[in-house]
Amino acid sequence: MTEQQGYWIGEAGIPWGEAEKLKWRGAQQKKRSYEQEVLSKFSQVSESFEAQQYGELNYAEGQYPLYGFKSRDWDQAKPTILVTGGVHGYETSGVQGALRFLIAKAAEYSQDFNILVAPCVSPWGYETINRWNPEAIDPNRSFYGDSPAQESRALMQWVASCNLPLMAHIDLHETTDTDNSEFRPALAARDAKVQTNWNIPDGFYLVGDSENPSDEMQAAIIKSVGEVTHIAPADEQGRLIGEPITQFGVINYATKALGLCCGFSDARYNTTTEVYPDSPLVDDENCIQAQVMAVTSALDYIRSKELS
Q1: Which of 91, 127, 174, 274 is catalytic?
Q2: Where is the active site (predicted)?
Q3: What φ, ψ does residue 194 adopt, rounded to 5°?
Q4: 18-306 is classed in which CATH architecture?
Q5: Strands (DSSP E) along 60-178, which ranges?
Q6: How many alpha carbons lie under 13 Å from residue 267 in its C-beta half-sphere?
Q7: By the 8 A CB rule, do 20 and 201 touch?
Q8: SS3 291
């Protein structure tokens, strides 16, 4: 990808203050409906799960109820897994993939797992197609104590209220061409820091936890997802988005240190998915299928490893 220069808000070398953040916020517009594209699908979810409103975002732009789904047959003896989508609201297949898993597949795993699904963690971001929340905060860098992001705080509190440790957390994401045309330039301007990574891998890949690697599970996911869509090849330096691969289609981050969603718990198994919906080799449906396959293959692996 070609590096983008400059941004329309702020001055080069000076981090944003409140005036710049308000200017950015005032330029955001609603482009799609959380109610129509997310909430309206809740009626399709199996009776095996109950909807729980775990919070509400109260912004000047409006109020957004936050919903998660929880297994009705909650059992202290079962391992608990969490699936999240829309931590970055603009990442459509993360939201729709979490919903599709919940509607079409989750009930098949209820006998073995307690299941939690938060399909759209950042609904304002979903509607305005944004990575940040209205306060120019990235929820996926804000999963830690005293988080400045309402979205992150609410999710962590809901999971904590279930009073069971997570065995696994699968966080569904995607990377689009707007990362380079909008979000990375905005980040560089907001923080007055030069962005050196402009690589967008063409295909599906995973981000694991360098402090808690799950290499075998990651390999199982990549193998299964490869039957649905293409896996992103490493670049000439053996890297994806500037990070060295640990195996085909996988890189690792220090997820807790970075405040990433998949690192906020002490889950034994965690991973973040990434698909590239702007690839000429995929369409929206293929991206959703890849997200669902990532979740089900992870659960199949954990079931065979931990429950057999």
Answers
A1: 274
A2: 274
A3: -70, 130
A4: 3-Layer(aba) Sandwich (3.40)
A5: 62-71, 80-85, 114-118, 166-174
A6: 29
A7: no
A8: helix
Q: What's at 282, amino acid-wise?
A: V
Contact present, 273 and 173 (Cβ < 8 Å): yes
Q: What is the DSSP string of 171-229?
A: EEEE--THIIIIIHHHHHHHHT---------SSBEEEEETTS--HHHHHHHHHHHTTTS
The kind and range of the H/E element at 243 are strand 243-244
CA distance 147 to 127: 22
Q: Tell me the pLDDT of the chain (308 aa) as tens digits.
A: 344 458 999 999 999 999 999 999 999 999 999 999 999 999 999 999 999 999 999 999 999 999 999 999 999 999 999 999 999 999 999 999 999 999 999 999 999 999 999 999 999 999 999 999 999 999 999 999 999 999 999 999 999 999 999 999 999 999 999 999 999 999 999 999 998 888 999 999 999 999 999 999 999 999 999 999 999 999 999 999 999 999 999 999 999 999 999 999 999 999 999 999 999 999 999 999 999 999 999 999 999 999 98
Pairing mode, strands 62-71 and 114-118: antiparallel
Rg (CA), the chain: 19
Contact present, 221 and 298 (Cβ < 8 Å): yes
Q: What is the pTM of this model?
A: 0.97
Secondary structure (3-state) at 141? helix
